[in-house]
Design goal:
Helix content is 28%, strand content 28%. The two termini are 23 Å apart.
């Protein structure tokens, strides 16, 4: 098991290797998306959730979705060109990325799975998981998309009211 310091270093080194300028900010735990955004001084939509998604052939992909939205499974399946996708359990997500759920980020993942980014994140500086609990990583979304050759598409729907931070 890697330490938070090792996970942050892995993300920092991977960003540097791809020419990405990132910054890390330590932050307290939040009970909601709104609280997390307030702690970071940004809008909820500028917090991007990185979801690792399992395909039926036991490969994975990353879906980057604004914090105030959720994956639209029909839209994502159509963009990926498959009939079946699902979220893996926490152990499989860790095995697929090297990061624990809630800290997952494509930057520094142990495998460079394909990245699918919701079109709503473009043109912004975003916050996302940093590979370690208690930290957020900030990066220019367009630079991240370019560095990972991400597919940009409409892959989300509005978050239902009152939904928990995921």
């Amino acid at each position: 098991m890697t330490t938070p310091s090792e996970s942050l270093s892995r993300a920092r080194d991977a960003a540097q290797a791809r020419g990405l300028e990132v910054s890390f900010r330590e932050r307290p735990a939040a009970r909601s998306l709104a609280e997390a955004a307030a702690l970071l001084g940004i809008r909820p939509a500028d917090i991007v959730k990185t979801l690792v998604v399992k395909r039926s052939d036991d490969t994975y992909l990353f879906a980057l979705v604004p914090g105030d939205r959720v994956i639209s499974w029909p839209k994502l399946r159509a963009v990926v060109g498959v009939n079946k996708l699902r979220l893996p359990d926490a152990d499989h997500a860790l095995a697929a990325t090297g990061y624990a759920r809630g800290t997952i980020v494509p930057i520094g993942s142990t495998v460079d799975w394909p990245v699918f980014a919701d079109e709503r994140i473009t043109g912004k500086r975003i916050a996302m998981g940093a590979g370690a609990p208690g930290y957020s990583l900030f990066v220019d979304a367009d630079a991240l998309i370019a560095a990972y050759g991400a597919t940009v598409a409409d892959i989300s729907v509005e978050e239902p009211p009152g939904a928990p931070l995921s």
